[in-house]
Amino acid sequence: MNKAGERLFNGLVKENPTFVLMLGMCPTLAVTTSAVNGLGMGLTTTVVLALSNVIISLMRNIIPDKVRIPAFIVVIATFVTLVELLLEGYLPSLYEALGIYIPLIVVNCIILGRAESYASKNPVIPSLFDGLGMGLGFSVALTMIGALREVLGAGEIFGYRVLPASYVPFSIFVLAPGAFFVLACLTAIQNAVKLWGEKKGRDMSKIQSGCGNDCTTCGHSKEAACIKNEQEEK
Predict the structure, then answer these.
(1) Taking the model in full, what pTM does it have?
(2) Could you tell me which residues come within 8 angstroms of residue 196 by beta carbon, excluding any fewer than 6 positions away?
(3) Is residue 67 within 8 Å of 183, Cβ to Cβ?
(4) In this structure, how many other beta carbons lie within 10 angstroms of the beta carbon of residue 46?
(5) pLDDT number for residue 175
(6) 218 CB contacts (<8 Å, ≥6 apart)?
């Protein structure tokens, strides 16, 4: 698998920011009342993540180490402002639905985490695909959570009726507790898949590993290498 493909697969599966790393929980739980909102938030974050990764990678040899975090925030805030203005001008309904969570993308730990751990240390093209992979993984996760909440809580998906009129919606799923229930169920399914793969003798160590290092360069099933890298970083 080429480098770009590895970065995409890493963000979508191996280190999915929502189901594996459990990052960005605030927008994940708050805006996923519908599939449209989840998809909109995910794609908005993807655009900011990919563009900020590119700029930070280009400037990685220029930004002084002592001010790297403020510099990253300035770059990210610039793209968030541009995206927010575009949404307000062209997609006002989505802008209203996402509300305060659009400017809060600036301090989203997914974006800051990828800027610090990957974009600031790698060339432009891999950084771009790393941002796209993480963003698409975030988008898929938010859309799945939003779709399930919308179906169970309103009998609809993307605004279209999918369940019969006789269906009595579980209104709790469009409220805050519903987000926790759906996220827990999807994570449990992932755990079940991982256990099933392990019983079949497949290497599932890179799924929901919780390792803070880059899975594509960590070494297959070498937990000692991960521990050593973490100790060196400390």
Answers:
(1) 0.81
(2) none
(3) no
(4) 20
(5) 86
(6) 211, 225, 226, 229
